From TrEMBL, chain A:
Domain spans labelled ABC transporter: 4-234
Naturally occurring in which organism (per UniProt): Chromohalobacter marismortui
Lineage top rank: taxon: Bacteria
Protein's name according to its UniProt entry: Carbohydrate ABC transporter ATP-binding protein (CUT1 family)
GO annotation (BP), single: carbohydrate transport
From TrEMBL, chain B:
Species per Swiss-Prot/TrEMBL record: Chromohalobacter marismortui
Topological type in the membrane: Multi-pass membrane protein
Family per record: Belongs to the binding-protein-dependent transport system permease family.
Protein's UniProt keywords contain Transmembrane helix: yes
A Pfam family assignment: BPD_transp_1
Source taxonomy: Bacteria, Pseudomonadati, Pseudomonadota, Gammaproteobacteria, Oceanospirillales
Protein name as annotated: Carbohydrate ABC transporter membrane protein 1 (CUT1 family)
This protein's record includes keyword Membrane: yes
InterPro entries: ABC_transporter_permease, MetI-like, MetI-like_sf
Cellular component terms per the entry's GO annotation: plasma membrane
Keywords, alphabetical: Cell membrane, Membrane, Transmembrane, Transmembrane helix, Transport
PANTHER family: ABC TRANSPORTER PERMEASE PROTEIN (PTHR30193:SF42)
């Protein structure tokens, strides 16, 4: 039985439709992440699940029961807010116990729950402090503790890490993941950070303009995106989009890279792997398409790291070299298109030099130019 | 200012002029402040001191300087009328502050519920504060006058036994004062509370809703405790309004009936300027100053300490 079921939910504010026929189901114990740029409706969807904003039409079921018109308190959910929303006048203990107190839990049980949660999150020494005396990370823990104390059916996290500094964010991310693995809780988590989405989620729902574009595992969303938006949104640095023309040859399909600056020169041609010759490709011969290649699917030719890696060779001019420590990000011009590549840290590339590369075409994807949908 | 790429001589001349105008610039604030500081020192603090000196003399119609120690203060506390005035201040000040806080908070909470025409309503509630207390007093005197106002209106409707004579009833007249003063000031308190409410994170309400708290509970347990600094400021402001109340009493009751609604301020005025007892009046003025200081000093202390920490 699914823990949360959202059926054809619509939401309009005045004339703007912020949620368009959203349907999704979450299994018990699943970690679902709603990800998308700001204004995509992900927070509205979360508020609709929480009952903080009424939906215009559609149904929301929690644990098999229709809760569409129930108040937030009657839904058996807990929420962690971006601003933490700790009650400023209460100490940590009272903050955690407040929800239990409102649910008329006896005092002894309440104290037991607070002790359990404080132990779990290692905030026992902070119990008598006021929120104003806590650091960002500690407030974050208390906010999670407040949610955990109630043991609800579903946890909602609304961009919980975006107010933390970079280092703490990574730590808390791991902590949330550990907590989820240990407690097996059902979590719906909103973020605009695609790395958080990739690292935490069992499944990711990528949203844009009030619609779910793709719902799948992190691997599916990353390697098998349904359209250019999903492909470009997931992954950092983002996927390279190269305009090409599909050409049919005797030995298979070839992608001819268009060079706007130099139309007379010999065009670069990338053979499409024969193993991936989809039926659909046939009807696109002679058409303009967009080739999507992830930065890590380029490999410097000299390294010959993997003998099995039989990519297509190409020759580019390096424009910017950005070493990040773990690897080197290389900006280069490939037949007039700016392309980002992720090379190994030992690479000796310098800006202004020509670099010999191979590209792994077996992982590349093709999109239509008009509606940006995936072709192959 | 001088890092322009203009030719050297010009910039040197500029620098010379700069130093002259610079010293003027440094002096200017002090020069501008000095006259008003002198005036304030003389007319506020000088006269305070003079009043204190007079309170130690047996001045009558005119000031004179036969010092008699604190005898005027002893006479003051033995004076029945002063005791009425002081008791009135406690009743009036207490009720005024409590009612203003309560009404102001209620209005602010109700206005904060994202209602339509909030701006217009806020202005309406704040308007009494724009009136002078004299006007408030006169308006309420007419409203409460048994022969002209509410009582005569209700009687003209046929309720011949209706009485609403607070203004002329010595036991109730002080409450008539409270009513007018609350009407005047509660809109202002509302504005203070509204500003406080607006600064509260919306997510607190959402979190409390998820925790299962009803709206009155949210306000009582979470929001109002957050407004403590606002309550504190409001009490300070209202308390000194209450202690200094003079014009409202003069316009509404004139201290009457008899001296039933005398407040320290009207007591001081009456003794100093109409009864020819400047010594006693000065003593009462100094007592009022002590009352204001008793409230103001802790307030300033906490404010300044707060600033240092903030």
């Amino acid at each position: 039985m699914s823990a949360l079921n959202i059926l054809h939910v619509d939401k309009t504010f005045g004339n703007t439709q912020v949620l368009k026929d959203i349907s999704l189901a979450i299994e018990s114990g699943e970690f679902l992440i709603l990800v998308g740029p700001s204004g995509c409706g992900k927070s509205t969807l979360m508020n609709a699940i929480a009952g903080l904003e009424p939906v215009t039409s559609g149904d929301i079921q929690i644990g098999g029961e229709d809760v569409t018109w129930r108040t937030p308190a009657e839904r058996d959910i807990a929420m962690v807010f971006q601003s933490y929303a700790l009650y400023p006048s209460m100490n940590v203990r009272q903050n955690i116990a407040f929800g239990l107190e409102m649910r008329k839990m006896p005092k002894a049980q309440r104290e037991e729950a607070v002790a359990r949660v404080a132990d779990l999150l290692q905030i026992t020494p902070l119990l008598d402090r006021k929120p104003s005396q806590l650091s960002g990370g500690q407030r974050q823990r208390v906010a999670m503790g407040r949610a955990l104390a109630r043991e609800p059916q579903i946890y909602l996290f609304d961009e919980p890490l975006s107010n933390l500094d970079a280092k703490l964010r990574v730590e808390m991310r791991t902590e949330i993941k550990k907590l989820h693995q240990r407690l097996g809780t059902t979590i719906v988590y909103v973020t605009h950070d695609q790395i958080e989405a990739m690292t935490l989620a069992d499944r990711i729902a990528v949203m844009r303009d009030g619609e779910i574009l793709q719902l799948g595992t992190p691997d599916e969303v990353y390697n098998d995106p349904v359209d250019m938006f999903v492909a470009g949104f997931m992954g950092s640095p983002s996927m390279n989009f190269i305009p090409v023309t599909l050409v049919s040859r005797d030995d298979g399909y070839v992608l001819r890279v268009l060079d706007e600056q130099d139309p007379t020169g010999a065009p670069l041609e990338l053979p499409w792997p024969p193993a991936r010759e989809a039926q659909a490709l046939h009807e696109w011969v002679g058409e303009r398409l967009i080739l999507g290649v992830r930065p890590e699917h380029f490999v410097e030719d000299e390294t010959r790291m993997e003998t099995s890696f039989d990519g297509t060779r190409l020759d580019v001019m390096a424009t910017v070299v950005e070493p990040t420590g773990a690897d080197i990000l290389l900006q280069a011009t490939l037949s007039g298109t700016e392309v980002t590549m992720r090379l190994g840290p030992k690479s000796q590339v310098a800006a202004g030099e020509r670099v010999a590369l191979r590209v792994d075409m077996s992982r590349a994807v093709l999109f239509e130019t008009t509606n940006q949908r995936r072709v192959a | 200012m001088s890092q322009t790429d203009s030719p050297l001589p010009r910039s040197r001349a500029k620098a010379a002029r700069h130093s002259l105008s610079g010293s003027l610039e440094r002096m200017l604030p002090r020069l501008v402040i000095a006259p008003s500081l002198a005036v304030a020192l003389f007319f506020v603090y000088g006269y305070m001191l003079w009043t204190f000196v007079l309170s130690l003399t047996d001045s009558g119609m005119l000031p004179q300087y036969d010092f008699i120690g604190f005898a005027q203060y002893a006479r003051l506390f033995a004076n029945e009328r002063w005791n009425v005035a002081a008791t009135n201040l406690v009743v009036f000040g207490g009720l005024f502050i409590i009612l203003c806080l309560f009404l102001g908070l209620m209005l602010a909470i109700l206005l904060d519920q994202r209602i339509r025409q909030e701006g217009a309503l806020r202005t309406i509630y704040l308007y009494p504060m724009a009136l002078s207390l004299i006007v408030t007093g006169v308006v309420w005197r007419w409203i409460l006058n048994p022969g002209l106002g509410v009582e005569s209106l209700v009687r003209s409707w046929g309720f011949e036994d209706f009485t609403f004579d607070w203004l002329v009833n010595p036991d109730m007249a002080i409450y008539a004062l409270v009513m007018a003063a609350v009407w005047q000031a509660s809109g202002f308190v509302m504005a203070l509370f509204l500003a406080g409410l607006r600064s509260i994170d919306d997510n607190l309400f959402k979190a409390a809703a998820l925790d299962g708290a009803s709206l009155p509970k949210v306000y009582w347990r979470i929001v109002i405790p957050c407004l403590r600094p606002v309550v504190f400021s409001a009490v300070m402001i209202l308390a000194h309004i209450a202690i200094k109340s003079f014009d409202l009493v003069m316009a509404l009751t004139g201290g009457g009936p008899g001296y039933a609604t005398d407040l320290p301020a009207t007591f001081m005025y009456t003794y100093t300027f109409t009864r020819g007892e400047i010594g006693l009046g000065s003593a009462s003025a100094i007592m009022m100053l002590c009352g204001v200081l008793a409230i103001l000093v802790p307030y300033l202390y906490s404010e300044l300490r707060g600033n240092k920490h903030g």
